[in-house]
Each structure stands twice: as structure tokens, then as C-alpha cells.
Amino acid sequence: MIKKVMKKIFLAALLILSFLPSAVFAQNKVQVWEFGLATCVHCKQVKEYMAEKIKQNQNIDFQYFEMLGAENQENRNKFQVLADIYGLSDNNSVPVIFIGDKFIIGEDYSAIDIAIDYCQNKICQSPEEKLASAGENWKNKNLPEGKKEQTVGLIFLTLLLIIVAVFIMKIIKKK
Q1: Alpha carbon distance 57, 35 (integer Å)
Q2: 14: in domain
Q3: Residue 74 covered by a domain
Q4: What whole-number distance in Å separates Cα of residue 43 and Cα of residue 95?
Q5: I need a surface site. Which of 26, 31, 100, 110 has the fewest CB within 10 A?
Q6: Residues 157 and 136 placed together within one structural domain of the fold
Q7: 143 to each of 93, 124, 148, 161, how far by Cα in Å?
Q8: Are residues 12 and 76 in the same domain?
């Protein structure tokens, strides 16, 4: 009897889960910001590496910010604000890459991959969101889409699983 009830509950849970939006199970779009110099070989190599990563994974939003030249003062300002937010002090090296709550200095591809993987599976605040929360008015405010929907979906899924578990426990206690 218990097996039949558990089988019905399992099938009902599968049916409910099949109607959940696919965004609940999708990977997050990860914003990766690189700050560098046109004269920096390592900056160019990181840009090339990221171009290849984007070909493999469309859930990466990569932006490069040139800091060399008077016309790039806004980029240097962005970098300085982000450096303060991330706790990066006295850095004279480039490239600097901001991903989620991490900053990476130099060509550390392993650290870049780990940060991207982490933010695709967790909800991370993007560099752009960090700038916005600092109260700065920056151009091109395009916040990543889907984060609110994913959070609501995950909460719904968690509540559903708790309800199913409580229901199963009640059935088991009756027997």
C-alpha cells in the first residue's frame, strides 16, 4: 500500500515539476568585466580566451574596458569604484577581471573558469549591479535578466518538495 501511495506521490511530483518554467533549471547569465590596456599582452590574451569561452557558453556577458587614453576616463572611474567595492587596493597590474564577488588579477584562467561556473549555478551580483548599488550613475545599465524569476522558481520548488516530504511523513506515520 505504501509503495503505491509513494509511487503516486512521485508521479504527481514529476508532473508538477514538468510544468515549472525551464528558467528555474537554466544557468544564470554571468557578467564578466575585464579592465586592461591596449598595450598589455596579457589583457589581449584574456580577451581572446573569453571570446572562445563565449563560443562554448552563450550565458556569458563579457565586456572589455580600455583604460589607456584620455577618452577612457569613465572606464578608469568605473574601475576605481569597483576596486573600492571589491576591496582591491594598490593594484597597478592589468588585466583585472570582475566576476560575481571575485576579482582576478592577471591571466588566471582557472580562477576565471571557477568564478564563471560558480555564478552560473548561484545568483551572483554582477559588476554592473555593484556599481548601481554604490549609487553611481553609469551608462548602459543592462542588468542581467531572469534572476528574479529563477529565485521565485527555486523558492516554489523548495516549498513543493517540503510539502511532498511532509505528506509522505504523514502517510508513513499512519501505517
Answers
A1: 21
A2: yes
A3: yes
A4: 5
A5: 110
A6: no
A7: 28, 12, 11, 31
A8: no
Q: What is the CATH number of the domain that holds 120?
A: 3.40.30.10
- Compute mean pLDDT per 10 residues along the chain, 175 residues long, and list them: 62 53 64 97 97 94 96 93 89 93 96 96 92 63 41 64 80 77
Pair 74, 100 in one domain: yes
β-strand 96-99 against 102-105: which pairing, if any? Answer: antiparallel
Q: Which of 123, 167, 173, 130 is nearest to 149 (CA)?
A: 123
Whole-angstrom Cα distance, residue 164 to residue 14? 11
DSSP-derived 3-state class of residue 48: helix
Amino acid at 64: Y
- Quote the CA–CA distance of 27 and 54 in Å, as a whole number: 14
Range of the domain at 163: 7-24+150-174
Beta strands of 23-173 (E only): which ranges? 30-36, 60-66, 96-99, 102-105
In angstroms, rounded to a whole number, what is the distance separating the alpha carbons of residues 167 and 11?
A: 14
